[in-house]
Amino acid sequence: MYGKSFFKITIHFFIQTPFYDKIGMIVMITKTENPRVFKVNEKDLDILSMSTFESELDLALIATSDSVSLDFTEVEEISSAILGILLAKKMKLKKKGIEINLMNVSNYLQRILKLLNLSDYFLPAKVY
Question: What is the pTM of this model?
């Protein structure tokens, strides 16, 4: 049981996170050409990535005064801990007039958000 857990941690840190900053630190959230859009470069947002995700999200949010979209193109799985972080940030920032939205969310993650009644909170309204 311990071997499997250790193996997953090893893969998580050395294979699934190919983005590094100038001093060799792993970067989970990166800027894009659009100053309001940040790309999440992690395949699995789980409890192991929780503290890194929260601190990098805080850095991204410092740079904005209007709204932020997180590009979830690479994200395949998300834990309840990460959803809790996103929900807490969204509620706190909404009081300041700042919105957090998710974009390019896979169908699988859209279904999860819908089941949890969070799709209206995080996904932009669809235009029909």
Answer: 0.74
